[in-house]
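Can't paste images in this forum, so I'm doing it all in text. The chain is below; anyone willing to post the predicted structure tokens underneath?
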Amino acid sequence: MNKRIVVGMALWLAMAVSAWAQGKGDEIRVGAFPNITHAQAMVGKANGFFDRALGPQVKVKWTSFNAGPSAIEALFAGAIDMTYVGPNPAINGYVRSNGESLRIVSGAASGGASLIVRNDSGINKPEDFHGKRVASPQFGNTQDVALRNWLKNHGLKSNDKGGDVQIVPMANPDQLTLFLKKDLDAAWAPEPWATRLIHEGNGRLLVDERTLWPEGQFVIGLLVVNTKFLNAHRDLVKNWIRANVELTDWINGHQDESKKLLNDQIQKETGKALPPVVLNEAFSRMQVTYDPLHGALTTAAQQAFDGGFLGRQKPDLSGLYDLSVLNQILAEKGKKAIQ
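Text version of the structure:
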């Protein structure tokens, strides 16, 4: 074959491969929950904010989860690249992988979880929890750890620890169903489910978790990235974090519009929109923030360790955060760096 033809074919093949690669673009696979505490994810899905911010060459693929442990398992399995998740599953995943598999790169939300009791359960004070059935979204998730810590602080134990309080991990929608059937006495739930238990499940607010924390701030939502993905696609992660910061500011500055978008997405994913009174009440119990609230997470880690979720030796969490990208973006925007 003519040498010129061979060279020409090689050039054509190289151009074709390059064009295919450009057309294929990048993909980022992201986990989130249909909860108010994942406001950036829900609003960003509803109005296409992340798609626009990352550009037409990047495909955003979302996966919905009920609670954090499932999302972390998906991150471990390589099914997703990053996820919005609570602090305890993030800590547990970091410890299980010997600090290798994930990094916290941004905050998402503070507050937004409460202990709700059924009105006719006979529960009015901590001592009334003896012999009761109490739900959390999933074993080892953030609300599950908070519930067990609260019981311990009031001299109570779950039945798996030799006590008589039965903790029943279950999906948030199932909690509401069992409240109505009177098969469940209480639940530690994230928003909007805590408020739904009040308005739809004959529930009553017993503990707003904000009252248990300094200045009423505690971590309920973080952005966690697979370490290999972060190292291999740092620019892509940076664009996502920038969008997360901008969307956080937009949500806080446009709350009415944000709540409508949030509600539209929750309806799309769960089949039911929230009544305005539930939406407004639930949203009022949380704060959308890109600050990962390091001090509160340290406390949450101690609670998880005390609850037996992090092994026999207190883990070193010094490498859990990588806020370098977030702080670059904050500097670009003239905002204060987060330590």
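The CA atoms of residues 99 and 317 lie 8 Å apart. The first helix runs from residue 3 to 24.
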